[in-house]
Every structure is written in C-alpha cells, then in structure tokens.
Amino acid sequence: MVEVRIENLVKTFGETVALRGVNLHIKHGELFTLLGPSGCGKSTTLRAIAGLDYPDSGHIYFGDEDVTYQHPSKRGAVLVFQNYALWPHMTVFDNVAYGLKLRKAPKEEIEKKVKWALELVKLKGFEDRYPTQLSGGQQQRVAIARALVVEPRVLLLDEPLSNLDAKLRLEMRSEIRRIQRELGITVIYVTHDQEEAMAISDRIAVMNVGTVEQVGTPKEIYETP
Ligand code: ADP
Ligand code: ADP
C-alpha cells in the first residue's frame, strides 16, 4: 500500500487531447474514485497509473518513487479490467496462479497464496472450475483474486460493476469495500455512476474533458451546489 501522486498528466491520441494536465493526490489505504462521463479520461488515467500506456508529459509517483515510465510488472499496480479478462481455457486456480508462475514462485508458495486469495474473495472450493462455469459476480471475484495474489501496492478497478445485474452490483460493491478495508490497500476505482461513487468511495475526483474539476469526500461532493 502506497500513496499515489499524479502531477500534470497530459496524454493525446492524434487530435484528441484525452488528459489536459491531471493532478491527483491519493492517500495510502484509501478507496479513491475517478468519476465522470464517458470520454472524460478516466480509463486513460488508470492505464497510465498501471503503466499500460505512457503519458506525453507529467509524472506519476508511488510514494517517493517516480514510476511514470516504469514497466507495468515492476511498479506493482494491477488493473482489473471491466470484462475481467479471465483465460477461458484455464481453471480458477490457474487463472489466479498465473502472475506467480510468471514470477517463477515456488510451487508451495503458489499454492499457499492462491488459497489465501480465493479465501479472501470467498471462492474456496472453486479451484477446479472454468470461468464459463461461474456467474458474473464469481468471475469478478476470480479477477480480483488474480490481481491481489501478487500483492500489488495499488489495485486499479475500471468500471468493475458495469457487467453485473442490479443485485450483484450491490453485493460486489460491499465485497470490494470489505476486501479493501481488510487489506488496507490503496484502490483507485473508475465509474461514471454517481450513486455508486458516493456509496463506495473515501474520496472522489470529478473529471470532465480531461481535467479534474473537484476532489472531495462523498459528503463534500454532494453538498457542493
Ligand atoms: P473514459 O474512461 O472517461 O470513458 P477514456 O480515457 O477512455 O475516457 O478516453 C478519453 C478520450 O481519449 C476519449 O475522447 C477517447 O475517445 C480518447 N481515447 C482513449 N483511448 C484512445 C486511443 N487508444 N486512441 C484514440 N483515442 C483514444
Ligand atoms: P472504457 O469503457 O473503460 O472507457 P473503452 O471501451 O472506451 O474503455 O475503450 C477500450 C479500449 O479502447 C481502451 O484501451 C481505450 O484506450 C481504447 N479506446 C478508447 N477510445 C478509443 C478511440 N476513440 N480510438 C481508439 N481506441 C480507443
């Protein structure tokens, strides 16, 4: 867990200016939400924090470390995609173990950590299932376990509830909150849904056309005219 500072982030795609100088200070251990309409730059910001795309200018710090151009696997920020992106031909166990195998972790360590991660997301006993044999909510739990098993410093969630029905959305909302509290991990969360942001966040940054317009607690945001 670490604090994240974003300074003057600019990103263009051809003629499109996706980020026009984004500044954010995310405290360690908070659930921080980027809220705003489609196209305002939420995903671009998240991808830059994950290292999946480099900005044109500006800086991203994890604590005192400038991670702006660091390789994604080095910086310890893991992004959970909207569609979960599980590997359909792999079991739940192998999906979750993947990152540890890449790092050539010893077999006993892999088994111990996968067990820990699946217990954390309440999927003990699902090790041998395949993603198609799981509900949407369960698939998302696997995606979260796969992200957390490598013990990231920052967890990035891009519209994590958008593929779930209303009942599961509420359930996974409180599950994400529980997991975040239990680990004390810094979470950066992206949504276009104001009600969802209000319910889940410690603090919210309201974005609009590539800039941050306002930052505050849900109460502060709600009370601003
Ligand atoms: P949000 O996540 O808030 O919906 P995005 O960060 O995805 O917004 O996009 C911000 C802007 O940048 C939009 O105008 C989008 O079309 C554009 N954009 C994002 N990624 C690309 C890309 N790879 N190529 C071209 N334009 C992009
Ligand atoms: P989200 O719904 O999370 O904002 P999108 O579905 O808009 O993401 O975009 C998915 C992917 O396509 C992202 O990698 C994004 O960078 C890219 N993308 C978004 N807008 C454009 C665009 N106008 N042209 C090319 N790629 C884009």
Overall description:
By secondary structure, the chain is α/β, with parallel strands linked by helices. Helix content is 36%, strand content 27%. The chain is built from eight helices and ten strands. It has helices at residues 42-50, 72-75, 92-102, 107-120, 136-148, 166-183, 194-200, 218-223, and strands at 4-13, 16-26, 31-35, 57-62, 65-66, 77-80, 154-158, 186-191, 203-208, 211-216. The strands form two sheets. A six-stranded mixed beta sheet has the order 6-7-8-3-9-10, with helices on both faces. Strands 2-1-4-5 form a four-stranded antiparallel beta sheet, with helices on one face. α3 (92-102) crosses α4 (107-120) and α3 (92-102) packs parallel to α5. The longest helix is centred in the C-terminal third of the chain and has 18 residues, at 166-183. The model has no long low-confidence stretch (mean pLDDT 94). Bound molecules: adenosine-5'-diphosphate (2 copies). One adenosine-5'-diphosphate is lined by residues 13, 16, 18, 36, 38-44.
